Model the fold of this input.
Amino acid sequence: MTVTATSKGHAMAAETLPATMRAAVYRGVNDVRVETIPTPQIGPGEVLVRVHSCGICGTDLKKIHTGSHSAPRIFGHETSGTIVRTGPGVEGFTIGDRVMVFHHIPCRQCYYCRKKTFAQCPVYKKVGCTAGFEPSGGGFAEYVRVMDWIVRSGGLVKIPDEVPFEQAAFVEPVNTCLKAIHNLDLAPDETVLVIGQGPIGILLAALAARTGAKVLTSDLYPERHAVAATYGLNHPLDAARENIVEAARRESEGRGADAVILAVGGNALIRTAMDAARPGGRILLFAQTQHGEAVIDPAAVCMDEKTLLGSYSASVEIQEEGARLVFEGYRNGFDLTKLISHRFPLEKAVEAIEVASNPTAKSMKIFIQPGLEV
Done:
C-alpha cells in the first residue's frame, strides 16, 4: 500500500484498485455495450481518475451514430472524479484530489496556437484521456487514464471542496460556449437570438446575457423555456407557434438580431438563422459538426454584409475564466446542475445514450455516474 500526502497535507493511503472495471464500449455504429475490461495502467507523468460524473455530449452521440471513428473505443469527455493513482514525476496533484479533466490541450507553440486557433493545433487534435483502446475521452467508465501532456499543460483542474462533481463536469462545455460568446464580441446595446434551448443553448444564452445584450431564446418546448427562465432568460420565442425571423425583427426595432447563435445540430435552420440576422449582423454556427453541403444565401453575406462564423471546442486561453464561472457560479446563482434531467449508473449507459439521442421536452443534460446505484 502506498501512502501519499494530499494537497491539504494529510496522509492518504492509495486504495487497492481492481484489475478489471466496467465501461461502455463502442463496438460499431449504434452499438455500445457495457463490458468488463482491464483497469487502465498509468505511466510517468500520468494520473488515474475514478470517474464520478460524465456528461453525454452531442459529439459523443454523433460518433456513435455515424461510425466516424473506428471501434472499439470508450467515449465521454465531460468528466469529473477523484485521483486514485499518480505516476512518477507528477507535480501539483496527488491521490485524493478532486478534479475535472480536459481531454484536449494544445501545444501553445505551433502556427495555429500563435493565431489562437487552438482547436486546429495538431497536438490539440490528439486525445489525452482513455479508459482503454484508442484514446477517446474514456469518461463512460469507472476509471480514466489522463496522459502526461494533459496533466503537465493544465488540462487537469482541481475542484474546490464545496463544488459538487456534477457542477465541475460542466467546466469543459462551459468553456466551449464561452469561447463562442467571446468570438461574437457582443455589446450591451445588441440583441442576440439563440436558436435551441437544450442545455448547450441555455449555456450560450446565459453567457450572452452576461455581456448586457438583450437575449432572445427560441425553442419548440415551453418546458425548456421554463428551465431557461431560471437562468434569467426572459425573452422566450415559441418556435412552434410563431415565425422566429419576424419575432427577431419585432424585438429589434425591425432590423433583425445583431447576432444569431444556432445551437441546434443539422443544417435545416442555417437559412433561418441567417434571415433572422440584421444587415451587417453575425451568425454563429455552434452545433454543425458534420461536413456536408448546406443552403445559404450568398447575397446575404455579400450585399447584406452578414458574417457567417463558427466556434468549435474549447480554448485554453479562457480556461481559468471558464472554470471560475463554473466554480464560483455554484455559489452565486449559476447552478448548472439544474440542467441535468437524467442520471444513469454506468450499467445503464446504453439507456442513457438512447435518452440523450432522442431528446424530448423533458430531457436536458444526461449524466452517466459509475457510482450510482443500479
User: Anything to note?
Assistant: The chain has a mean pLDDT of 95. The chain has twelve helices and 18 strands. Residues 4 and 12 are 5 Å apart (CA to CA). Residues 171-184 form the longest helix (14 residues).
